Task: inverse folding
């Protein structure tokens, strides 16, 4: 979808959500008899503290620059659900000011338990690519990472900084370089956040390989495919990697390594 298409889709989405709210629900004054269902543009504009003209242009998909703060006020005024709010910001190409707070919520126990019900190596990554859950098979496979009681559980720090990773991961240089590009694609809108900025700074300081890969500014989608390992006790291993996102917590990524 091009920029004009996104602006049109954004306007239509906001208009549709406006039509689904009633003044009675929001306890707004005025007559309850209306020609069309939903709130009036003037009412939403007032709730968002923006001009009616500006709001109208947004709904019409005109070439206007809508700030993230204004979009947040629109989302709140329209009482958007978490999924709808995420969709609103995705269409706008803006970063949700509340994204960090929303995604730092505690991970439900049932999500953490998923990996234990998978026979193949599986682990769950959070927004910063820290492993928050993994099964016994993954613990056995990833020596120097998931088998360690202490130490970082970050996938990037393991790949670039742990000596075990360079020996375990076949074609390490290619895989490591791609991993940095996948991380940039996944977290590109949040690189200015303190936790992510600190992670990147640590990696730049600790690994010249990461520094080279990161300075390439390459961006690729995280995808599956063949993964090969040279395990210190199990020998040569081959898998097909499958990546899934949790539907109502899209910052969580489930990675499974199925026998090839």
Result:
């Amino acid at each position: 979808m091009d920029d004009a298409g996104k602006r049109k889709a954004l306007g239509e989405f906001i208009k549709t959500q406006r039509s689904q709210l009633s003044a009675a629900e929001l306890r707004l004054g005025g007559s309850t008899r209306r020609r069309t269902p939903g709130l009036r543009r003037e009412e939403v504009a007032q709730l968002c503290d923006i001009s009616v003209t500006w709001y109208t242009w947004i709904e019409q998909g005109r070439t206007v620059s809508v700030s993230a703060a204004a979009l947040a006020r629109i989302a709140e005024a329209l009482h958007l659900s978490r999924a709808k709010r995420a969709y609103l910001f995705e269409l706008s190409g803006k970063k949700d000011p509340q994204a960090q707070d929303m995604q730092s919520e505690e991970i439900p126990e049932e999500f953490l338990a998923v990996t234990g019900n998978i026979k193949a190596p599986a682990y769950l990554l959070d927004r910063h690519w820290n492993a928050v859950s993994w099964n016994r098979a993954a613990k056995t496979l990833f020596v120097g990472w998931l088998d360690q009681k202490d130490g970082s559980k970050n996938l990037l720090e393991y790949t670039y900084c742990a000596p075990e990773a360079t020996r375990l991961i076949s074609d390490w240089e290619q895989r490591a370089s791609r991993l940095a590009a996948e991380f940039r694609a996944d977290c590109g809108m949040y690189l200015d956040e303190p936790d992510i900025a600190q992670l990147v700074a640590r990696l730049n300081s600790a690994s010249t390989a990461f520094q080279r890969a990161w300075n390439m500014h390459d961006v690729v989608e995280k995808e599956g495919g063949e993964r090969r390992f040279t395990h210190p006790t199990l020998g040569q291993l081959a898998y097909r990697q499958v990546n899934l996102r949790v539907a109502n917590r899209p910052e969580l990524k489930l990675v499974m390594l199925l026998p090839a």
In short: The chain has two domains: 3-97, 109-259. The longest strand covers residues 235-246.
